[in-house]
Amino acid sequence: MQVTSELYFIAAMMFLIIIVCIVATFAFYRAYKREPIEREKEARKIERLKKSRQSTAEEK
Predict the structure, then answer these.
(1) Nearest partner of 19 among 30, 11, 8, 31, judged by Cα
(2) Taking the model in full, what pTM does it have?
(3) What is 2-50 written as a DSSP string?
(4) pLDDT tens digits, 31-49
(5) CA–CA distance from 45 to each of 21, 31, 34, 55 (Å)?
(6) 55 membership: H or E segment, kind and range
């Protein structure tokens, strides 16, 4: 009886570990996919600032 309960406990812990690993992998994957998009937005913002500075410098 005790052996069976120990096996159930170990199986439950393994299941919980797998769930935690899946959730962590999903979260890291989303962050990994989001990072290039944020870099691209930042690059666009920098380009806009450069263009606006160039246009104001040309006006002077």
Answers:
(1) 11
(2) 0.59
(3) HHHHHHHHHHHHHHHHHHHHHHHHHHHHHHHHHHHHHHHHHHHHHHHHH
(4) 988 888 888 888 888 888 8
(5) 36, 21, 17, 15
(6) helix 2-59
